[in-house]
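Q: My labmate handed me this sequence with no annotations at all. I'd like to see what the chain might look like in three dimensions before we decide whether it's worth expressing. Could you predict it?
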Amino acid sequence: MLDIKDLCVSYGGQVIFDKFNLSIEAGQTVCILGRSGCGKTTLLHATARLIGYGGSISGQGRVSYVFQQSRLLPNLTVLGNIMYALGGDRESAEQAAMFALSAMGIAHIKDKYPAKISGGEAGRAALARAFACGGDTLLMDEPFRALDIAVKRGIISRFISTKFPACTALFVTHDIEEALMCADRVIVLGGSPCNVIFNTYIDIPAIERDCDCAELNILRGDIVRALIM
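A: Here is what I predict for the chain of 229 residues:
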């Protein structure tokens, strides 16, 4: 279980979190929504121990992180970027990297450099890198934002089928439809200091969802109301 207790984070005198608490069951995919600047990315950074904070965060184990920017190394090919992140035996790293690229539908760009691929392809390469590296906790900050709707649906389907069952995913998005497609649990953050203002579970398995069904339509309205409060 990922357990966040009494989290406190401040920037330049502004309190972002003050004794914030959140527990996430192992294996869950949790989508976090909220207004820009409310603290969503800060929560991911704290969970990954990229920033200092008060309180405690435990249970994240080994973390993979998909940032808003792809952060691909410009001097390595797409395949080389993933292999570099994996390290270890070259043959094993190449096999794992190719599996991840194929899962994301971009094996055909493996020998291209970041400057020669589109923003959407770079985002998918970053996802492939995180999936190849694996880990206990997958943190994703708007990972699908550069994708058009048709590609996005395909990639989310691949994400659902590729994510390891034991991997906990904490996924920041501004897109309610993304949350409805893949989340086991939806959380809306808001307020100052930031807190949970809406929290619900989705019982329909992600692989069986029709986002136009009555239950998800009701949930969509609830999320919209929470976001505009």
